[in-house]
Amino acid sequence: MVIRSEELEHLSIEDIEELRLNTYNFDLDLAKNWYAGESRRYQQKIEMIKQKFPFIETDVELLSDKQLQALVGWVINTEMAPMRFASEFSKVRQSDFDYQQFCKDLEDELYLLSNEELQKRIRATFPVDPAIEYQRRLAEIEVDFKTNYYFSLDMADLHSIRYDDLKRTCEQLLAQGKQVFITVDNSMYEKNNDSPVDYMFSPTDLQRLVDLNNYLAERGMKTPVHINEMNRFVSKDEFGDGWSIYDVVTANQKIDEVVAFIKHKQYSPFEAMLFIHNYITHKFQYKDGRLEECRVLPGIFKSGKIVCSGYASFIKAVIDRLNDPNLKCDLIGCEYYKKGLVRIFDGGHCHNLVHINDPKYSIKGSFVEDATPDSILEGDSASRGFTHCLLPVADLDRMKKLAYVQKFHKSRFDITIMDSSKLKQDYQRPSYLDRFKTSELVLKYSAQSPAIPLDTYRAGLVEMYSKTNELESLPIQLAELKAQQMIMISALRSAEVFTSKAESAFRHYRVTRQMAEEYFPEDFEDIASEEEYIEDAKQVAAQNQADKGGKQ
Question: pLDDT tens digits for 185-237?
């Protein structure tokens, strides 16, 4: 069982032991009931096989041709059952796969096996005796009861009395030679679009987590604290789903390095957004994976995988960390439908809504920021420009091939994870007619989302590129060349993605592929690679830390 920190203020060690004993007996009863049912079904299957094939345990060499044929047929049918099931649901599989020929080949293969090999193959088709699994479960339950204690601390209680109660209880148990495991958790269902990104902690919160982990590690525990902000833990079976302290600290440090670089370069809000878009679309290539592996920041940095909600979480984390009142960011969830005679669901998507006020460039409003479609592709050395960087909100309704259906007032879990099997009960997929309506986001923000002029993009890009080197400035000609290159790439892609009614400045910048190919010199070096960004950011972060230490 998992004991939550809020329960500790009412529980003594004796109370905890009584609860554990009750849970232990309950788990034993569950295991016994499971075994009784599985054992009964196992015996029934064995009896049925023996009745149908009474010669099943006879040496293969003593079987008649008819008996051997029946036995081989049974083995084939047993092994091919999943294949037969799959073929019923896959017309492509049926057209590409000759089931009868496969069975014939398998039959020929079985006839060629030796007596010993065929007997082994026959035994492998028998139902598995549940006794082994039952003994394993009993041993696991007993070990847990004797030595292991699982606790859960809500993220909001890191600085409360509950944290101290939990630490005190762990100290008592460790003194008795017990093993203690802690998960620090939270629920995405309680987060809104503008809530801080999960797994991003303040220095004091992070230090609190590290202290708790080190306290237990010094007493012999290995990776004792796991962190999970998808949902609250209620079962020990969920414990392994969390991230380690190291994973979370690493993600926070990487975000802080990017933030330190932006602050050091003194970018304006608009320049900062151009840099963030350029950085993330160069650094991360879209690659799907398990839920938390590619959608939340510890997973992204550990696995190297990322999908749309991972891009959006990264961008929001950086903007939140900047703490600039003139630059704010939300996470936005939506659904895409392919346009046509019938609109077909094309999957969930996640991007950002950026609220920006930059007097330097006369920009004020709320804009769509979607790094996913602009990110680097496999085999390329650069991103695909700024086509989806700070779009006018109204352009979401002006895509050529996709219809955009927005889910605005939903939980962070809905936005980030996009797992329809786990959505709240009050969530309903948009109706067929809803898919043709103007999205709520467009209705709410289009009036305050003006198109950013092309000259403003050009000026911002030149300024941003001129500062991305460790030197205070690059030759202005190179910065201007890089800016023009990105504008032309963005314009080409914008013409492919949006209709002529789109407001984006890139959509109306006339450029042909031939012009672009002639304009881009083959030997043009990509300015300020991700490695330079990070190395520069690390130096800035180290210098800031040193300055802070000197002041203290």
Answer: 887 776 777 788 888 999 999 999 999 999 998 888 877 898 988 778 878 77
* SS3 of residue 503 by DSSP: coil
What does the pLDDT look like over 320-361, one tens digit per residue?
999 999 999 998 888 788 887 777 777 788 899 999 999 999
3-state secondary structure of 182: strand
Q: Please report the DSSP string for 17-36 in residue order.
A: HHHHHHHHHHHHHHHHHHHH
Query: Number of helices (H) and strands (E), helices first, in the chain?
Result: 20, 10
In order of 349, 396, 430, 497, 520, the CA distances from 344 in angstroms are: 15, 17, 12, 18, 38
CA distances from 134 to 34, 44, 141, 145 (A): 8, 18, 11, 17
pTM: 0.78
Q: What is the arrangement of strands in the sheet containing 148-154, beginning at the earlier edge strand?
A: 2-4, 148-154, 179-185, 225-228, 243-244
Tokens read off for 351: 């991007």
Going from N- to C-terminal start, the domains of the chain cover 2-7+143-247, 33-132, 248-546
Q: Amino acid identity of 169?
A: T
